[in-house]
Structure formats: C-alpha cells, structure tokens
Amino acid sequence: MPFKPDRLTEKTQEAIQQAQALAQEAQQQEITPEHLLLALLQQADGTVPPILQQIGVDPTRVAAELKAQLDRLPKVYGAESYLGLRLRRLLDAAWNEMERLKDEYLSTEHILLALVEEANSEGARLLQRAGVSREKILQALTQVRGSSRVTDASPESKFQALEKYSRDLTALAREGKLDPVIGREQEIRRVIQGCARIPEGEAGGRPGSRLTDRGDQVPGRV
After folding, report:
1. Are 47 and 75 in the same domain?
2. What is the C-alpha to C-alpha distance for residues 27 and 76, in angstroms, rounded to an integer?
3. Contact 99, 74 (CB under 8 A)
C-alpha cells in the first residue's frame, strides 16, 4: 500500500530531509534507500541506533562503511535531487511493516525492517553482513519500545524512558563503575537498614542526601 506523507513521524520526516541533504552534499541526483539508511544511522536520538546496539551491531561502523559506498556513486553537478523510485517503493514497504505492527504512523523502525529485506540492495547486504535480520530487529524492538505502539508523530520520546532518565545500578556494579565497597560494609549495612525503615513513598531520597549518595553502593554489595 502506498505510504501517506501526512502519517510520518517527526523522526521519519527528519531522516528523509537529511537523506536529501546527504545526496545534495555528495552531488548525487537520486535520493536512494542507502542515503536514508545513512541518515537513520546518524540519528543519535532516533530509534535505529539503539535497535542495532541491542542486536550487538555498532551503528557508527555501519555508517562509515555505508558512507564509503555512497562516495563511490556517480556525481551529477548542478542537478536537483529527487526521491528515487527505489526509495518510494521502500517507503511503501515500510508502510506495510507499520500496518503489520498495528501502528498508526510510519516510524524509523518500520523503514529499518523494510531496508533489511529490500531485494538487490547494497544497504540490505551491508546490514545483513553486519548481522542484522528481520527477526533480530523485531526482538530488539521489544527492548527499545516495549509494548508501546506508534500512535502519534513523536513516539521516540516515550521509548526507553527508564534508560533515559535513570541509572541501572546493578549494571553499573557489574561493570565496576560504582564506588568500591571494601572496608565499608558497616556503612552500607546501615544504608540498607535505613531503607527498610523509611516509609513507603520516601525511599527515593533527596538529591544530595545520604540515601542518594550511598544507595549507589547497594547493588555492588548485593
């Protein structure tokens, strides 16, 4: 089904605009799916980079390899860039992905799903060589956006809210990024006992309070 331009998320619109800018900067007339993929990989606050990171793929490395490929494309000086047929078909395929996921707006993850399965595509081959597949994208997507659906033009602000506005202390302790606890067992024990006595609703502590400062060491101790 053809995609509807009025049902694109803000990040999708930004990515298409950036793809056009990339083509123009490179003096390339046709805006291709590869230009759009590069724009998505460079979207630091978008959904595609965290999806690839969940899969175990470095989006920066993929972007560097893709840019090298795009730099080898023919240049047409002074010509106006236009949305190529391949890119239009890709957006139509992304719209189908949107409908399969029961979303209401065409988002960047739908484009990624369409990209990885595009036939005879350098972008698809590059993603596949890096270890990206449709199944892995769908698995990673559950981690990035959970059970949320795309029902408006700015869904990214709701995705990974916990990761954006909090710290995973258990993960930090596992990575050795918290203060050492050796020789501080009594202090940490007092913090744990204090937590147990704090009434419900007050356990978060205030910024700069003793609970906030020392609570970071509890996961390391556990």
Report:
1. yes
2. 6
3. no
Domain ranges, residue 209:
167-221
The CA distance from 129 to 114, in Å, is 16
Q: 140 and 82 in one domain?
A: yes
Q: Hey, is 165 helix, strand or coil?
A: helix
Task: Give CA–CA dist 40/143, Å, rounded.
Answer: 19
d(CA 82, CA 154): 26
Out of 133, 160, 187, a domain closes at 160
Place of tokens 């270890």: 131
153 and 176 belong to one structural domain? no
Confidence (pTM):
0.72
> Do 90 and 193 fall within a single domain?
no
The count of C-alpha atoms lying within 13 angstroms of the C-alpha of 2, restricted to the half-sphere facing its C-beta, is 5
Q: Which CATH number is 10's domain given?
A: 1.10.1780.10
Same domain for 149 and 199, yes or no, is no
Tens of pLDDT along 48-105? 999 999 999 999 999 999 999 999 988 988 888 999 999 999 999 999 999 999 999 9
Nearby residues of 107 by Cβ (< 8 Å), 6 or more positions away: 9, 11, 12, 47, 98, 150, 155, 156
Name, in order, each residue with C-beta under 8 angstroms of 157's C-beta and a sequence gap of 6 or more: none
